[in-house]
Amino acid sequence: MYQITNLWRHYLLFTHSLQNIKRAIFSFLFCLPTSLLALLLILLLAYNGFSVFSIYLPFPAKFQPEPANFSPEKSSGQMVTKWSYSSTRTRVSSSVMYAVKEKQPVILKAHLPLLQKSTSSLIPINTSLVSKPKRIHKRKSTVKILRLGAESRLFSTRIREFFERSSCKLRFFMTWISSTESFGDRELFVIESLFKSHPNACLVMVSNSLDSDQGSQILRPFLDEGFKVIAIKPDFNYIFKGTYAKLWFNKLRKGNVDPGEVSLGQNLSNLLRLALLYRFGGIYVDTDVILLKSFSKLRNVIGAQTIDVETRNWSRLNNAVLIFDKKHPLLFKFIEEFALTFNGNKWGYNGPYLVSRVVTRVSDRPGFNFSVLPPMAFYPVYWSRIGSLFRGPRNQVHSKWLHTKLDLIRRQSFAVHLWNKQSRKLKVQEGSIIDHIMADCCIFCNSSRSSLQIIE
C-alpha cells in the first residue's frame, strides 16, 4: 500500500512539472515580438505545405548514347568510300559531305509522368499509350494507300492499250500522291510545258486521286487539244513484279516494314518512278519541273544537283528527272538499294541520297552505260535560291543579271526544277525569269498567266 501511495505521489509531481514547463513556454511566446511570432507561424505553414504537396518523380536509369558510326567498312546505304574519281582529295571531301548530310544527331529521351494528381504521380506513364494515336493514324494512312493501290487490277491492260493506240514518240511518267484539290495551276502549267516541247509524247499520271471523274475534268483541256495523257491508279503488285520492290512491298503489307516519319506516299513515289521506268522505259519528271526543250536526244541520263567547287565533279544527284531504257541495270540497282536499305525516318534517304549512293558505287563497274548531266541541265538554280527566278527587275543592274541568267538557262537547260517546297507560296513577278519562261512554254497562255497570278 505504501508503494502505491509513493508511486502516485511521483506521478503527481511529474504532471505538475509538465504544466510548469507548458506555462513557461507560453509565457515565453507571449513575451516575443509580434513580427517574430508571425515569422514562426509562416515557417510552420510552409513546412506543412511542403510535406503535403511534395511529389515523387521516378527518373529512368542513366545510359550512354551510342555514337554515330561512319566507318568505311559499312555496307551499302551508309557512307561510301569507293569513287570513280582519280583525285584523292576529291574522295575525301565527297565522303565527308555525305557523312555530314546523312547523319542524324543522337537524341536522349527522358519520359516523366504527367503531373495531374498527387496520387497518380507515383505511377510512371506508359509511353506506348501516349504515342498510340499517332501510330494509329500512320497505320490507317498506310492501309489506305496500299488498299487503293491494290484496287487497280486493270492497270496493265489500260496502260498497254494507251501506249498501243497513242503511237508515242516519247513516254513520260509522273506520280501524284495528293488529292485532286491540291493539283493546282502550277502542276497544270508543268503539263503545258511538257506538251509544248513534246507535242507527240504520251504522259501517264500514276495517281489514285486523278484517276477519277474530277481528275478527268482537270486533264480534259489537254485531251480536247489532242494531247495524249491518261491518269491510272497504280497496281503495285504488277509494277513491282520481278524486282526487289515486290519483296519490300510484301513486307510492308504484312507490317514488317516501319514506314517511318517521312510520308509513305512520298517514299512510294520514289520507288514507283524507278519501277515504272524499269518496266516500261521512258522519262520520269516531277510535277514541279518545267520542261524547256525536247528530251528526244537524251538517253540513260540522270542530273547532278550540286558540284564540288574545287574538283568540278558532282557531289549530289537528284531523282526529279530520270531518263532510262527499259530494264536498265542502274534502275535495278536503285530498286535493290531502296528495298535493302529503306529508312522512313530520313528525308531524301530513299530519293536523292539513294541515287547518289548507288551511282558512286557503280561508276567504275562495266555494263552500266549512263551519263550524269551537270546541274544546269535540270537544276539551274539551287533550292535555297529559287526565289531569285520569281522576282522582277529591281534596277538596271538587277535587270542585266536577270537577262544574263535567262539567256544561260535558255541555252543550257532542258528543264527548271521549281523546288515546290520552297517556292509554292511565291508569286510570279512581271519581268522575272519565270515570267519569261512561262511565255516560252505555255499552251493556254492567257489562262496560264492569269491563274499563276503575275504581279505587275
UniProtKB/TrEMBL annotation:
Protein name, UniProt field: Gly_transf_sug domain-containing protein/Gb3_synth domain-containing protein
Keyword Protease: no
Alpha 1,4-glycosyltransferase domain span: 324-447
Keyword entries, A-Z: Membrane, Transmembrane, Transmembrane helix
Matching InterPro entries: A1-4-GlycosylTfrase_dom, GlycoTrfase_DXD_sugar-bd_CS, Nucleotide-diphossugar_trans, Put_A1-4-GlycosylTfrase_plant
Organism: Cephalotus follicularis (Albany pitcher plant)
TM ranges: 24-47
